[in-house]
Description:
This protein has 16 helices and 14 strands. By secondary structure, it is α/β, with parallel strands linked by helices. It has two domains: 2-8 and 15-55 and 94-208, Rossmann fold, CATH 3.40.50; 62-92 and 216-397, Rossmann fold, CATH 3.40.50. A hairpin with a 2-residue loop joins strand 11 (282-286) and strand 12 (289-293). The termini are far apart. The model has no long low-confidence stretch (mean pLDDT 95).
Amino acid sequence: MSHQFLEMPDKDGYFGEYGGQIVPPELKAIMDQISVAYEEVRQTQAFQDELADLYTHYVGRPSPLFFARRLTERQGGARIFLKREDLNHTGAHKINHCLGQALLAKYMGKTKVLAETGAGQHGVALATACALVGIPCEIHMGEIDIAKEHPNVTKMRILGCNLVPVSRGTRTLKDAVDSAFEEYLKDPVNFLYAIGSVVGPHPFPKMVRDFQSIIGQEARAQFLEREGKLPDVVTACVGGGSNAIGMFTEFLPDEGVKLVGIEPAGLGLDTPDHAATLTLGTKGALHGFKCYTLQDDKGEPLPVYSIASGLDYPGVGPQHCYLKDVGRVQYEAITDDECLDAFMTLSRVEGILPALESSHAVAYAMKIAKTMPADKTILVNLSGRGDKDADFVANKLGL
């Protein structure tokens, strides 16, 4: 049973009943070309060598595995370890797949890479990768997010990307997706749309997963070397789901390892202000693929909310939907208040400022550690650093 997970998706991009390509026929042909090019390129030694070299000498991989000794002592119970993706160049896991997609665009001879961004992390990472490989980059971003995430906007402009403000609709992430996609459709033959998570039509959920799986490959080897055994619990935050699937993939065949994805409960699961798609969503379709979604009676996406800009998405990666249904991964939700408490606790107990997204997973680890014996271990994917959130948190808490 274990290895069934590693053979997914099928040739049509499905993980069980989720995923696929719900796109117009002319776009399906383009997606299929990207899929073929990706499968060809990823097998070549030149591509593998270039990506491996960049991960080592540019990103700074492998990222360290850190035993959070003081946090463990404070909570009592199981020992808590952190996979330090926050120490990557650009400050998060996003650079892992952005480098892969920028290299793919270069190998395919594309003339421009397009993307949307919400919090700006994907935008900064993609602008960075495109500057490195020498390919033009265009990022679409809602006007509200531009105002909220000003430091990331400045970085993107310095890195040379063309930043397109989106003034339609809610002026946030969903409208930025629509705007970027319209631009992409003007010339899909010469442009590449670089999706920022394990979402969208096939082959993107697979491709982004493959690039992100370096996290779990490193963490599993590091943990075995350090502890002589695998962790008892592995946890990561889930919005679209790229950092979590990157961490979980290598552990899927290890049936003794409990995998837990953490969604944003926002102001509470009993309010409309959350983004707990797997916890409270229903089966539907969004942005070209089938998944669990938070939707109204007509199948339209509901407005979603999280204190973490990177988690407020009304859908979720198709592989996560499948893993929930078969019971291999458990999905829990953490509130804004629990997230803020974890942000401040890790900062003051270990001197590490976690991203608000990652703080959801830290909060879950803090909660369950005290219920577990001291010989048990919890591995948290610390997917990003909290520099981008520091002013917001300070203002919110009156620091």
